[in-house]
Write a structure and sequence with these properties.
Elements: H1 2-15, H2 21-32, H3 37-44, H4 48-69, H5 71-88, H6 92-104
Helix pairs in contact: 1-2, 1-4, 2-4, 3-4, 5-6
Length: about 100
């Protein structure tokens, strides 16, 4: 469950600008602010089922965006490469560049 939550949080970070304001609000409240479905439904004056359906649909949209654009998978791969690179780099000047790469993410 934690792994899924982390993945959705990353996907949300990458693709939130492609979502509607309502989708963003539901996802932020549910995943980032840890609101329950009931709390969100009270705030928006809709049923819990409506909130649940919206969140599940939005999760599928985020996965669909990732399938097409691969921003998260490229981020993960880049992070792995930079980590490996930092293990091998001994030259102080080169280490600065590796650090700059890490700071970009």
């Amino acid at each position: 469950m934690l792994e899924k939550t982390n993945r959705i949080n990353y996907l949300f970070d990458f693709y939130q600008s492609l979502l509607t304001p309502k989708q963003r609000s539901y996802m932020e409240m549910y995943y980032l602010e840890d609101y329950s479905l009931g709390e969100i439904s009270e705030l928006f004056e809709v049923s819990r089922q409506a909130v649940y359906d919206n969140i599940r649909r939005t999760e599928k949209m985020l996965e669909s965006y990732e399938d097409k654009l691969h921003l998260f998978s490229k981020f993960e791969r880049r992070t792995q490469i930079i980590t490996k690179l930092s293990e091998f780099v001994k030259d102080p000047e080169a280490k600065k560049y590796v650090q700059q790469l890490q700071d970009l993410d």
